[in-house]
Design a protein that fits this description.
CATH class of the largest domain: Mainly Beta
Number of helices: 0
Radius of gyration: 26 Å
Oligomer: single chain
CATH topology of the largest domain: Immunoglobulin-like
Number of domains: 2
Strand order of the largest sheet: 1-2-3-4-5
Order of helices and strands: EEEEEEEEEEEEE
Structural class: mainly beta
Number of strands: 13
Length: 151
């Protein structure tokens, strides 16, 4: 059984198996797929559900979200901040920071948790290899400088 939206996009596909129990048809198995689309009519998500005969309900099995991928990594390994006194490099998981004004370096996850910290003057190196891939915010203490890095 198929359902379509006003743009003729498939929004639901239901497959099921019935058996006759002497009184009528009883659904014993099935799957349902639900689809979502973006403003341009491109598929943006697909949810797969399996039929659970004991409860008579469909239960989520998986959800796949489709999107455009943008690589935000850069080939630039050294970044000079607007404050010419601070320089950074992030290469092979090692973050190096140099500044005559700094009192330390802190690395924060996007949720705001401090995941690495070093007290230092003039230069510091932090090994970030143990951190999960993702976006981090580096704060150079003693200066107004922060920078985002992608690991």
């Amino acid at each position: 059984m198929y359902s379509f939206d006003e743009f003729k996009n498939l929004i639901e596909d239901v497959i099921y198996e019935d058996v006759y129990d002497g009184e009528g048809a009883v659904q014993v198995a099935g799957a349902r797929y639900e689809y979502g689309y973006d403003d341009n009519g491109n598929i943006s998500e697909m949810v797969a559900l399996d039929y659970e005969p004991e409860t008579g309900e469909y239960e989520n099995v998986s959800k796949t979200v489709y999107c455009e991928y943008s690589d935000v990594s850069s080939s630039v390994s050294t970044i000079e901040s607007g404050d010419s006194d601070v320089t950074y490099s992030f290469d092979s998981g090692i973050l190096s920071v140099n500044s005559t004004a700094m009192t330390g370096v802190s690395v924060y996850s996007v949720s705001g948790a401090c995941v690495a910290r070093a007290a230092a003057t003039e230069s510091a190196s932090l090994d970030l290899n143990a951190l999960a891939s993702g976006l981090y915010i580096v704060r150079v203490e003693g200066t107004p400088v922060s920078v985002r890095i992608v690991k």
